[in-house]
């Protein structure tokens, strides 16, 4: 069997500037991978690299030729474990680049069998949790308006970015605009341990569900300090990058937050979920700001999750790819009878 692989960089404008404690983003640089078999069937994947984890669109483009050569050498899209091993041998780091290839190969393999990827894995789509919709940092009134608009659009779960000297004011504004919404907050490493514990108390009074990454990942003992004293459950994101991090965070948080762009492959994402379960943790899958070329693949994991934060494509002004329906936050895996991940070029 022969496979032909190509890739292209795409610059995707955001609907609104998106700000977290580390900075502001107005566009997302993604790299789209397409792997075609000899019959003309094509698998699609996407990389959404993060400079925080040492990757850019340029580094993805630099390593993709070697990664795609490895796929072509294996030649069989169903040899998923062999391909993953080859990719890791060729490029040890660059998880977003490897993930894009992994997604494309999985998409192609499932398409060749004529089934959605979650069906190939034997998962029940009816058990998928709702995805949250993220409200980035902004002026207080603008945050209030965004929260009201998200609720009006039907999203029942909101994730609020914090990490400012106006955190209490921002949460109060959101709670006033969305009194019945389920709220989660993400500090993106911006708080000290004692600050995080203090803030957890008044966040609990406002019916927040949990706090994501309250302290820097470089302070594991600070994370333990917060976990042991917080009034709310703690989710680890920047502290949970790869599978090997799971044992280290097991006594420092309640929820492991994986992202495909951190794990390096769909197979590794499933291993991380299993490891987190084995350590008694709940599991969330988050995302970067990404096209449906990759979000659709993450959505296929949803039945394995307790929480989902897969709104990356919803924050884009336009996306060349359609994906899994996220109507009013519901991950509707069964809505479209699409083999593979469900990602499709809108022009096709």
TrEMBL record:
Keyword Manganese: no
Domain Mandelate racemase/muconate lactonizing enzyme C-terminal: 140-233
Top-level lineage group: Archaea
CDD domains per record: L-Ala-DL-Glu_epimerase
Keyword entries, A-Z: Isomerase, Magnesium, Metal-binding
GO biological process: amino acid catabolic process
Any one GO molecular function term: metal ion binding
Keyword flag Translocase: no
InterPro entries: Dipeptide_epimerase, Enolase-like_C_sf, Enolase-like_N, Enolase_C-like, Mandel_Rmase/mucon_lact_enz_CS, Mandelate_racemase_C, Mandelate_racemase_N_dom
Cofactor: Mg(2+)
Family as reported in the entry's similarity comment: Belongs to the mandelate racemase/muconate lactonizing enzyme family.
Name of this chain's protein: Dipeptide epimerase
Originating organism: Halorubrum persicum
């Amino acid at each position: 069997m022969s496979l032909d692989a190509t890739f292209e960089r795409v610059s995707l404008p955001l609907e609104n500037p998106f700000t977290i404690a580390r900075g502001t983003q107005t566009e997302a640089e993604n790299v789209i991978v397409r792997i075609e078999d000899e019959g003309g069937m094509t698998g699609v994947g996407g990389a959404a690299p993060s400079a925080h984890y040492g990757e850019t669109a340029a580094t993805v483009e630099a390593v993709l030729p070697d990664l795609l050569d490895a796929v072509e050498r294996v030649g069989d899209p169903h040899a998923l474990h062999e391909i993953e091993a080859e990719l890791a041998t060729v490029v040890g780091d660059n998880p977003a680049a490897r993930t894009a290839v992994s997604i494309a190969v999985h998409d192609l393999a499932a398409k060749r069998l004529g089934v959605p990827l979650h069906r190939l894995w034997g998962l029940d789509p009816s058990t998928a949790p709702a995805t949250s919709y993220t409200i980035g940092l902004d002026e207080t009134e603008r945050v209030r308006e965004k929260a009201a608009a998200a609720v009006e659009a039907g999203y029942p779960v909101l994730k609020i970015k914090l990490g400012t000297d106006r955190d209490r004011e921002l949460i109060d504004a959101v709670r006033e605009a969305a009194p019945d919404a389920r709220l989660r907050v993400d500090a993106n490493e911006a708080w000290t341990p004692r600050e995080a514990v203090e803030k957890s108390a008044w966040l609990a009074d406002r019916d927040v569900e949990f706090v994501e990454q309250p302290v820097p990942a470089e302070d594991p003992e600070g994370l333990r300090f917060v976990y042991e004293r917080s009034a709310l459950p703690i989710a680890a994101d920047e502290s949970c990058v790869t599978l090997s991090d799971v044992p280290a965070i097991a006594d420092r948080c309640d929820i492991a937050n994986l992202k495909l762009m951190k794990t390096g492959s769909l197979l590794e994402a499933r291993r991380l979920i299993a490891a987190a379960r084995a350590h008694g943790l709940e599991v969330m899958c988050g995302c970067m700001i990404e096209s449906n070329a990759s979000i659709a693949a993450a959505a296929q994991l949803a039945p394995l999750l307790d929480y989902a934060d897969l709104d990356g494509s919803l924050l884009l002004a336009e996306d060349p790819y359609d994906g899994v329906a996220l109507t009013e936050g519901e991950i509707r895996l069964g809505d479209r009878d699409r083999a593979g991940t469900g990602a499709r070029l809108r022009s096709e």
